[in-house]
Amino acid sequence: MTDATFGFDSAFLQRVERLSILNRQAMRGPAAGPRGSPRQGASVEFSDFRNYVTGDDFRRVDWKAYARLDRLFLRLYRAEELAVVTLFLDHSSSMSFGVPTKALTAGRLAAILSYIALNNYDTVAVAGWGGQIDHFLPGQSGGGAIPGVWRTIAKLVDTPAPATDFASLRSYGRYRRGAGIAIVFSDFMTDSDWRAGLRSLRAAGQEVTAIQILSSDEVSPPQRGDWKLVDAESGTQAEVTLSPHLLRRYREALERHTAAVTEFCRREGISFVRLSSDVDLAGTVITDLQAVGVLG
Predict the structure, then answer these.
(1) I need a labelling partner for 136 at 20 to 30 A (CA). Which of 10, 128, 149, 224 fits?
(2) HEC states along the chain?
(3) Domain carrying residue 126
(4) One domain, residues 158 and 73
(5) What is the distance between the alpha carbons of residues 91 and 152, in angstroms, rounded to a whole number?
(6) What pTM value is reported for the model?
(7) Domain tally for the chain?
(8) Would you state the pLDDT for residue 54?
(9) CA-based angle 174:161:169, to the nearest 5?
């Protein structure tokens, strides 16, 4: 079996089902789920029930309650807390660059992380953003939510927004309040204040992971000679001669930019990963995310 939307085969999906999205803070969602709390004194003592939703694990159903009430309920435990994972997909025009495009790689990775989260009983929300948060899918739960979440991600991949403005992340509080996990996908190719944007998510109680996705041509441009360059978002044009000296200065500037993002994230307690749009999602990217403590 193969997923037609993002190209995942069943063997890969079965492999990632064994993973989970990690958190370093206590989660207090609207319901509980099988996520170990980092708080001291957590136990596996029975706590409460919640209604069964499509995709929940039947092994957690309280069959005695079903026999009495003819309704399905799941047993919840005090040490088990629900994480709300919000995927922030930058779908600005610059993300349409590369082979495959940065937008497609971000979408595929978001689809993988949503699959992992939903299979671990977490709740997944999706925020599409560019100049603003222009699309928001509220929290979805259970394995049955996967197709709808993936359709939302696919639509964002195919619908470029005009520009990237990290200030738009400050409006997240209009859509949801409370602690959670925020995963931000972007190329970070912007003049907007990405520091303030990421800080606003931290201030909103989110544990933040920033994933920078660049195309291989952006990292190491292959072109030489005279070119007219057009900014994908602003439309600004510049005629340049791409000499070895200029390309070296470009690569140095890009590395300084990525180093600044890396150091900022380290100081702020934000997990940061830089990926190429042609990365092997079925291989090295899982290892990279495990290495920085995003997946376990």
Answers:
(1) 10
(2) CECCCCCCEHHHHHHHCCCCECCCCCCCCCCCCCCECCCCCCCCCEEEEEECCCCCCHHHECHHHHHHHCCCEEEEECCECCCEEEEEEECEHHHHCCCCCHHHHHHHHHHHHHHHHHHCCCEEEEEEECCCEEEEEEEEECHHHHHHHHHHHHHHHCCCECCCCHHHHHHHHHCCCCCEEEEEEECCCCCCCHHHHHHHHHHCCEEEEEEEEECHHHHCCCCCEEEEEECCCCCCEEEEEECHHHHHHHHHHHHHHHHHHHHHHHHHCCEEEEEECCCCCCCHHHHHHHHCCCEC
(3) 10-18+82-214+271-291
(4) no
(5) 12
(6) 0.81
(7) 2
(8) 65
(9) 30
Q: Which of 3 and 68 is assigned the larger pLDDT? A: 68
Q: Is 162 in contact with 176 (CB distance < 8 Å)?
A: no
| pLDDT at residue 223 greater than cutoff 60 | yes
Query: Per-residue pLDDT tens for 14-29?
Result: 889 888 898 765 444 4
Cα four-point dihedral sign 281, 283, 284, 288: positive
pLDDT of residue 47: 54
Report pLDDT digits (tens) over 148-197. 999 999 999 999 998 899 999 999 999 988 889 999 999 999 999 999 99
- Structure token digits, residue 9: 């085969």
Torsion of CA 248, 250, 251, 257, to 10 degrees: 150
- Bond from prior residue into 38 cis (ω within 30 degrees of 0): no
What distance, in Å, lies between the first and last C-alpha atoms of the chain? 26
- Highest-scoring range by mean pLDDT, 1-10, 50-59, 149-158, 282-291: 149-158
Does 147 share its domain with 281?
A: yes
Integer Cα distance of 102 and 157 in angstroms:
9
Contact predicate 277/214, CB 8 Å: yes
Last residue of a domain, one of 29, 57, 77: 77
